[in-house]
Amino acid sequence: MTGMRKAVVITAVVLLVAGIGVLGLYQLTNSRTYQLFGELVHRVETQEKVVALTLDDGPTDLAPEVLRGLAELRAPATFYLNGNDLAARPELGKQIRAAGHELGNHSYSHQRMALVGPEFVRREVEDTDRELRAAGQDGEITFRPPFGKKLWTLPSYLAEHDRVTVMWDVEPDSGVDHDAATIVRNTLEQTRPGSIILMHVMYPGRARSRAAIPGIVTGLREQGYRFVTVSELLKLRK
Ligand SMILES: [Zn+2]
User: Fold this and answer.
1) In total, how many domains does the chain have?
2) What is the pLDDT of residues 123-175, one digit of tens each?
3) How far is the CA of 72 from the centre of ligand 1 (A)?
4) Which domain holds residue 202?
5) Potential cystine with 86: which of 111, 131, 162, 232 (Cβ 3.0-4.6 Å)?
6) Pfam family example for this protein (predicted)?
7) Do residues 30 and 145 lie in contact, with contact meaning Cβ atoms separated by under 8 Å?
């Protein structure tokens, strides 16, 4: 091989390896089931027909409507809330907690947390915890990364502070804009004992998700499922 051709081949190999590395890191930031440090739970291995409904973002003006729906169903949920929304509407956090639901930490400002520094991570986690405590959340506070994104600093901070990262294994309203009946059907098909369902109900554009909740709760109960909060579900892990 001439020196020139050798250089071209070496450059191609280096670019290929770098590309695979970047792709691998990107997939790692999005993984629902794995992170580099600390404990990540996306479902709990159990024979018991228990399931946790988790509702991300907010609180917003739609929180009271969501609470009324859950109260009619007598179903507990876990709300992963953002610190800045809680700080703006502290009474909504208190209402959610007073209705018997669990509050989780979904960061302060809902930014992607794959490539962020340790000080940013500390503030996002701790400032949100402070709002959650003020809303009445006692006991363990689990963390759910915004957009599910994490890489190095976030998992290492959570691991250092004995915090559990909670992801999900059923996400019926992510991606495609399904109607309520499809959201219900997909959820009933995909839920297994120990599943964690992720839904978004806090935005005006999410009427279909809000409308799907009664069908999900009654449908899963007909299959023998019992709804629990995330911390109740975590007690069942081995
Ligand atoms: Zn979110």
Assistant:
1) 1
2) 999 999 999 999 999 999 999 999 999 988 999 999 999 999 999 999 999 98
3) 25
4) 31-234
5) 131
6) Polysacc_deac_1
7) no
